[in-house]
Structures are given as C-alpha cells and as structure tokens.
Amino acid sequence: MKLGDIANDAATKYGKPLDGIRILAAEQMQALPYATQLLARLGAEVVKVEHPIHGESGRGSAPAMLDPEGRAVGATYLRNNLDKRSLGLDLKSEEGRELFLALVPRFDVVAENFKAGTMDRMGLGYSVIAERFPGVIYASISGFGNTGNSPYRDWPAYASIVEAMSGIYNWKNPDAPPVTIPVGALGDISSGLFAVIGILAALRHRDRTGEGQYVDIAMLDATVAMTDVVTNFWSLGVRPEPDKGLQVICEGFRASDGYVVAQIVREPQFARVAELIGHPEWIDEPRFATRAGWGPNLETVIRPAIDAWASQRTKLEAARELTAAGIAAGPSFRAPDVIADPHVAARNMLVEMPRTDGVEEPVLIPGNPVKLSKMAEGPETRVPWVGEHTTALLGEELGLDDHAIAGLRDRGIVT
Question: Per the residue annotation, which of 90, 188, 216, 221 is the catalytic one?
Fold first, then answer.
C-alpha cells in the first residue's frame, strides 16, 4: 500500500471512529509515537511536539535517510510518525512552556513519554494541567510509571531493559547470556497498545461524566503482562531445567531453505507428527506416552527426525504439510519473505513511503493492524519534518501572526 492509497474505500462514507479527537503529544522514540500513530490511523488529529532544532530523539536512530534539507531521519522515527503534524517547540524554555499550556485547552488528550517526573519538573505535569483544564485526558508512558512507589521510578528505560526485568530473557535458557530484543521493541509496542486502550477508555469515561483523568502506563507493567508465562508457569510449579525443557514442543526445524516453526502441545498432535514424518512407532513408545517425555528427548531423537523430514521440503512446503496434519506451523520468514508475502499484501500491512534522498527503494512502514469494516484505511501522509507545521499551528490555534512567530523563531523557542 502506498501513501495516499485508500483501502476499503466503500467505508469512506462513515469517516473514522476518532474523527474530531485531538492529541497534543510531547513524544520521542517509539512507545508513545507508536500509540499516537495508531490513534491517528483511527482518525485522531495528532500534533507532535519536539525539539525545535534536532527534533525528537527517534530522528537520531540508525539506519536513517535524509530529509529534503539533508538532515538524518532515523528508522525509529520513520516507522512511528505517519499522519501527524510537527510543532517545533522548546519545552525547556519558559516561553515554550507557556505556549504548550496555551495549546492544551484546544486538545482532548495531552500525552508524553519522558522519564517519570520530567513533565512535573517543567511545570507541565498532570496535577498542573488537570487543575487548569479538568476535562483533559493526560497520558504518560515511562519505564516504571509516574504513579505508585516503584523503586525504579527514576531509572531511564528502553525496551530491552523492561524486557529483561520481565523475566522473558531467561525463561527458556536460564543459564545462557540473555538474547536481547528478540522480537524488536516488545516493551515499546506493548506499552503503546496499552496506552491506546487507556486513552480510549478515558475518552469513553469523559463522554459519560464530562471528567478527564490520568492514564499512566509503565513499560515494565506492559511487558510483564505480555510475558505472562514467566510468572504463571512458575506459580504452577514449572522450573526451567536445561535437560528437561518445557512440556511442549515449540521449536524451529531445519528445512531446505530455512526453518519451519511448529508448536505441539497435546499428545494427539505428537502422534500426528510421528505419522507424518515416518515414525509411527513413537506412538506406542512409553517415553513418548505423555508430553513429559518430549523435552528430555527433543535434541537426541525428535529434532533429528523432524529435521531429516523437513530438509526434503522448503519451509513453506513443510508448514503446509504440518498444517494439513492438524499441527500449528509456519515458515520462519526473513525480511524479503515478509515483504513479498501475499497475506501481508492482501491485508495492507506494509505502507510505502518514498524516500527524499534519491534512493529509489521506498521506506516500508508496518500498516494498521486494526481492521474495521466501517472504516477505510488511508490515505496515509508521510512523516513530518522538524517543525514543518509550527507556523500554521501557532496561527490556527493561538492566533499568532507572522511577526510574533518570527520573534519566537529568532529566540530559538520554535522552528
């Protein structure tokens, strides 16, 4: 899907569910920008507040492309900021904070994802804004939350930190060095999703009561929720033992062109796999009678046999045969496979944004996973450049004329 395209255009007559909702977001990196991009895709208007010179920190990530002025725009920024407008505003200056406060009553939601307490220290925290504008919904995402008494409240956090603290890195291989960031930014994306849920719930509450409230998301909370097996299995007596493994088979097996992943969690499923790969004798062997015997025999017996079977097939062929036998399986794709996959295309799950630095291949950004029958997808707009909409926003929202805005720009308050 390309920028400007519309999918399910028969639904355009309905508009979008969040049409009319306005969000003022002092955001950076991924957790909150992902949340606000999703809200924008659902119809909300999002104004992104970022540093007037270098923009938010996600622009400095790598790899990067160049914007029309030759400034680097990093991958983290590129994949989280479609459909927004950029206001370049220095929140560390008194004038910048006054402008931010002047904008607040024109928005339904104020959101931020600085380290806990940062907005309070700038005089822009929830208590200040709620006192002046009680109907505003204020959302925060931080590593360990702004409310409560977390002993880690003052710690900075990236996704890898909260993922490590959730226990998931040591879940299957407790004696090996942690493999960090195994699924991209799980800690960020999960936090963003829970923030969206909280904001939508707060908007519904305000519809009923007229009152705003504080939505406080801790990245560690979100990641503990996403990695629920860690604490749940422990509470049920499961202890990681390298020689036994878990009482399921959830593994990648080597095919001719990569790996196929299969999940076998019930004894009848194991019997079907045994038949499929040419080892029906396993069905009557006592060591495989229950799932307790799978882990101890995985590396010495089960994996070699499944690998030998899969090696005669491509990963997609192996997945199809396993699936036909009633086993949940799928090919372990690499990036080119995902980009060319017909499901991804059919579901509009990649958005192409043309580059601005002479490179022909477009930037690929994940599409909107929320499919609604009465909402058209798109048209998407490209990410904004730093402060691209500052003049228009300050004029539209606060009535500032060109002379006043030029004075702010000369003083470094805006860009």
Answer: 188
Residue at 116: amino acid letter? A
Instruction: Write down how long the chain is.
Output: 415
Using DSSP's 3-state secondary structure scheme, residue 124 falls into coil
Active site residue 90: no
Residue 138, classified by CB atoms within 10 Å of its CB into exposed (0-12), middle (13-18) or buried (19+), is buried
Q: Which single residue is written with the structure tokens 């809200």? A: 39
pTM as predicted: 0.94
> Can you give the pLDDT at residue 92?
96
Whether residue 354 lies inside any domain: the answer is: no
Determine the Cα–Cα distance for residues 40 and 22; give it in Å rounded to an integer.
9
User: What is the distance between the alpha carbons of residues 148 and 90, in angstroms, rounded to a whole number?
Assistant: 29
Q: Is residue 240 part of a domain?
A: no
Among the three residues 290, 315, 332, which one is the final residue of a domain in this structure?
332
Rounded alpha-carbon distances, angstroms, from residue 309 to 259, 275, 305, 318: 12, 11, 6, 9
User: Which pLDDT value is given to residue 242?
Assistant: 54
Instruction: Indicate whether 371 and 253 sit together in one domain.
Output: no
Determine the Cα–Cα distance for residues 370 and 89; give it in Å rounded to an integer. 32
Asked if residue 2 is part of any domain, the answer here is no
- Smallest CA-to-CA distance from 48 within 388, 409, 391, 397 is with 388
In a domain, 48, yes or no: yes
The answer to whether 391 and 402 are in contact (CB under 8 A) is yes
DSSP 255: E
What amino acid occupies position 198?
G
Say whether both 258 and 221 belong to one domain.
no
Same-domain check for residues 34 and 110: yes
Query: How far apart, in Å, are the Cα atoms of 218 and each of 35, 123, 184, 190?
Result: 14, 21, 18, 10
C-beta separation of 287 from 293 below 8 A: yes
Domain count, the chain: 2
Identify whether residues 52 and 189 lie together within a single domain.
yes
What CATH number corresponds to the domain at position 170?
3.40.50.10540
Which pLDDT does position 183 carry in this prediction? Answer: 86
pLDDT of the residue at 8: 94
pLDDT at 320: 98
Residues in the chain where the model's pLDDT stays below 50 = none
Q: What is the pLDDT of residues 303-347, one digit of tens each?
A: 999 999 999 999 999 999 999 999 999 999 999 999 999 999 999
Q: Based on the domain organization, do 225 and 257 belong to the same domain?
A: no
pLDDT score of 364? 98
